[in-house]
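Lab notebook, bench 4. We co-purified these components, and the gel suggests they stay together. Before we commit to crystallization screens, I want a quick structural picture of the whole thing.
Request: model the full complex, all chains together.
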Amino acid sequence: MTRMYNGKFGLWLFLTSEVMLFGALFSTYVLLRVGAPPGTWPMYGLTAPQGDQILSVPLATVNTVFLITSSVTMVMAWASLKMNEFAKGRIYLLVTFLLAGGFLVIKYFEYKSKLTHHQVILREAPPGEIASAISSVEVPGAVGKSTLYYVNGHVTEQNDEFIKIIPDAKAGEKAAAAGDGHGHEVKIDQTLVRRSTVWGPQASTYLAIYFTMTGLHGLHVIGGMIVILYLYLTAAGWWKRMPEKLVNRVECTGLYWHFVDLVWIFLFPVLYLL
Amino acid sequence: MGSSAEEIRSHVKVYLMIFAALLVLTLVTVGVSFLNVSIPMAIAIALVVAGIKGSLVACYFMHLISERGFVFWVLGICVVFFFALMFLPLITTHNHPLSIFIESVSGQRIGS
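Here is the predicted assembly.
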């Protein structure tokens, strides 16, 4: 009835449940994105309401190329085995594994850069001596607009009395800032600080959905890598005993891997470019 | 999916062409984000390009284009529920006809 072997049909059923899993998160994203007050997405207090101020588009583009290429090597692994070219097929499996590893390494650096980057939100307008380092944004609220004062950058020292932070250059001022795109260190009294946080999931709704979606996708990449590595290590034995079974397993793993690629194809523009 | 070695050999060329198309479309996605277009237009273009890329992956790498039979029923049901899920947030929009209908039936205000 299904016109395919049971394992493959089972994999398709599994993928439909995966579609709904990621679909729920995409739906959540739409709800949060549409519900965000104008000019405040991705997060209150950013230098500009554009994802590429927090996220690195070039790195994500490289990651997209890695995943697309790994999809091709995966299907080539299956095609090689189908053509009785075992050695070639095994190499393609290894290349797929390495490309997936490359994707995770880049993701690690992306996460690390966010989890070491700070945002300090002030209770009130800053005093004159630090005012030039502080940015502000008009935030719509229940009783009209209010002004949010904030500074993004790297915290160098923090205690009960003050926070020392090297601010990022403000939007449009990067050329004027020090070579690394940062300004001079400023010292903020703790009595002025409403909230100080790294750019983790707790920092904003945008970063919460960003970490949830990319984290879940990353777990799928790790799962795929484990299966691909298992196939690579055991391929020789399977090829001797039951070659057809190996081909089917590679095909099923490929279906899963292409789905992981497919999810990223949508995650990339949604989180990084819109 | 055709299974003879000769058939597979001819498919390899198609895979490489799809690979090139996916790379070009990735560049298009990034390029469009730098264009000075309205946000709805940017979202529409990005999702259309992503949809084309996703279709290429599903049709050729996942071999959907050559599948027959029951799997399409399963995927069809999945697509219906997926779109239902995507449009679910619209119910939260105030004064939306669907919200008004649900509010009038249930007697409760949505989102309160």
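Chain B has a mean pLDDT of 82. Worth comparing against the SEC data before the next meeting. Chain B touches chain A through 47 residues (CB under 8 Å).
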